[in-house]
Predict the 3D structure of the following.
Amino acid sequence: MMNYLLGIFTCFSFAAFGQYCMTGVGPTSTVDSNVELVQLSGASGVINYAGCPGIIGVQDLTALSVSLNAGSSYALTVKFGTCSGNYAGAGEAWIDFDQNGNFDPYESIGTWTGTPPVAVSTFNFLVPVNAQNGSTRLRIMQREAGTLPLNPCGTFTWGSVMDFGITIGNGIDCSGYEGDDINDAININGLPYSDSKDNSFCYSNNNYVYPSPDIYYKFTPNPLIESVTASLCGSSFDTFLSVVDMNGNVIAFNDDASNCGEQSELTFETAGLGSVHIIVEGWGTEMGNYTLTLEAAYVGINEEITEMVRVFPNPTSGSIQLSKSIGQAELFHINGMKLATLNTDESLNIDLDEYQAGSYLLRSLDGRVTQQIVLVK
């Protein structure tokens, strides 16, 4: 299972999602299977479309548009028919509720199979309360000899693909939300780190491992960090957690952690790593509330030679004293920012009065000694 997921991840982690697949989509012939009728009454506006003759490719009918309200139910009527011969096939309809430019599996509002001539199909659907406000699309596809589920971007010989205009109201205003894709990743500026979110609205599927909505974080480890533990333990849904580098190569991933059931937790080494993306998503189409936490393990803190050099008092409210000299040393904030270069051969006392409360690292230039210091005010 995990090797299978890794294979998918390696191939598809950063495959770009386009804005509505239009080129090379749909039928290459105008005869036989074809959608004959589409009707939809919205909160305002009506779509009333009659098909035939058939059209090659995607029919852009977005000028025919209705408004739908989030949280309300509607009925879409479709007649999957023919413009000449009668052959078995399948049909499906989607509305891009999250407006990510894709017709995702969780956005399917109805399916059909059969052989024309058949009665009209009525798809009763509910617009999700977390649908995003604004303009989007309804796509209807009929594919002769097709099987469900259909690929909304598929190419085939006989059938129909047509897009209609939809305007969502009373939904979610997603302006200002960060982390929907790699270009808008949430920056993690320092560790430890914690962030709580709900990925069931304003976030879409931009990662191919699972079709669930995902949220991207960006983290750049500093040289003092040896490894990072990322955890989704305690989240409200079955999660999947992954770490990839800037080229899309998989660094680490986890589905179910041994210590928190269906939630995910992983540890990855940071030596030689540049910036990475940490991706939070659900197993399958799972989504909901989560808390992402990141903790760092720092280079050298547990080494035996470090234990030979004591720092006291620690925690401290203003200054520290070393038990012995460690020569030239550097003082860092725990987030990796270098604050000062010191010569402990000249003084074993280090004044920290000018710094704010928090965690700091004192490290010898030769890297053999690292001590963590806690400053309280």
Notes: The radius of gyration is 28 Å. The domain at 18-169 is CATH 2.60.40 (Immunoglobulin-like). The chain has three domains: 18-169, 182-298, 308-375. The chain has a mean pLDDT of 89.
